[in-house]
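TL;DR need structure tokens for one chain.
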Amino acid sequence: MAQTYDAAGRPDHPGEKGAEDPVRLLEIRETPLSVDEVFAAVGDHAAGGTALFVGTVRDHDGGADVARLGYSSHPSAEAELRRVAEKVVADHPVRALAAVHRVGDLEVGDLAVVVAVSCPHRAEAFAACRRLIDDLKHEVPIWKHQTFGDGTEEWVGV
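>> reply
TL;DR here they are.
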């Protein structure tokens, strides 16, 4: 049987394309996040590359000490997260994708967001994961309320 090739000149193999339903886990939750859970959700034998991003609460922002912060979300946030994920899947050969974001009160060091993408190749996985986290932060209605060490407060993303 003769080898066929896709539009980019790569071997035309099912593993080189995106999976039919690659969105494996999307959630906004109040409970602590797990890197292991997200990583396991994107496991795929046709993927040669998996990229994972973990966002944590840091102890400073804009030169000020952060004492604590809270995340809140609009009721449409999960639907918007799905829309963002589906755009990433449409534009990249994603085998599997997962994203979870925390809401509620968080402490310095807590995980705020974990996203992961697996693709046939590493460059594709990096690009898709970067797009996923960037679009999530810009388009999904999740807002951060920071309280600084001096008692002042600030909303971010509103």
